[in-house]
Amino acid sequence: MLRVLAVDDEKPLLEELLYLLRADPRVRSAEGASDATEALRRITRAVESGPDGPDAIDVVFLDIQMAGLTGLDIARLLAGFARPPLIVFVTAHEGFAVQAFDLKAVDYVLKPVRPERLAEAVRRARELLARPVRDQRPEPERAAVPAPRRTPGEAPAVERAPEQIAVELGGVTRFVAISDIAYVEAQGDYARLHTDEGSHLVRIPLSTLEERWAARGFVRIHRRHLVALGRIDELRLDAGTTSVRVGAAELQVSRRHARQLRDLLMRQATG
Predict the structure, then answer these.
(1) Distance (Å, rounded) from C-alpha 52 to C-alpha 194?
(2) Is the pTM of this model over 0.70?
(3) Kind and range of the H or E element at 268?
(4) Euclidean distance between the first and the last CA atom of the chain, given in angstroms as a whole number
């Protein structure tokens, strides 16, 4: 069972997070810290206490934007500890996902927190802690060369089979069916895969996925978006701009891709 520290400088949100964590039967204890200074003090005490000590912490559920030190700052400080607790970021901002991924977070949960999404983060943390040799984490060579670390632009996530793509977060590898992916969003040299259940960040440029998945019905609609043609629910034209609705998401279509997309959708509708 997990010993958890939740960190958020907004008291109502912290109390809500603690309530959800304490309701999970896999959580032995859940304590809160309302600022970075308090969080670091408690984490330092936990590390000094050791994994079996009375102050031990297994997982830190960490907000990112806080007064003073941010959650990312705390995570970078913890990376210097010999045996740091695992980190799950809980934030209202999607834009920090790449940094969180690089800091080896177990998960990245968006606010408002859904109970089932938080339960998935708890599952991932528990699964990772259950692995043998967790107490040796991080190993020196792995700390120097995060797995997998490749040259910029090279596609690091490898498809296990033609119908799946492997995604990693916090050392846990999951296999996502390509047919479950509604659209893909570029985030620098990374790509975020959006499914009905959530999203996954992979170290693959959008241009690479565009080339790989063209035969699977994925089309480029914008420099930032690649969409599964069959998942488009609506095509909208408004004052000279074009957009598509994919589930709950509305995505802009660039002028350069608008005509091709309309032609594809017409062929699909009449074919």
Answers:
(1) 39
(2) no
(3) helix 255-270
(4) 54
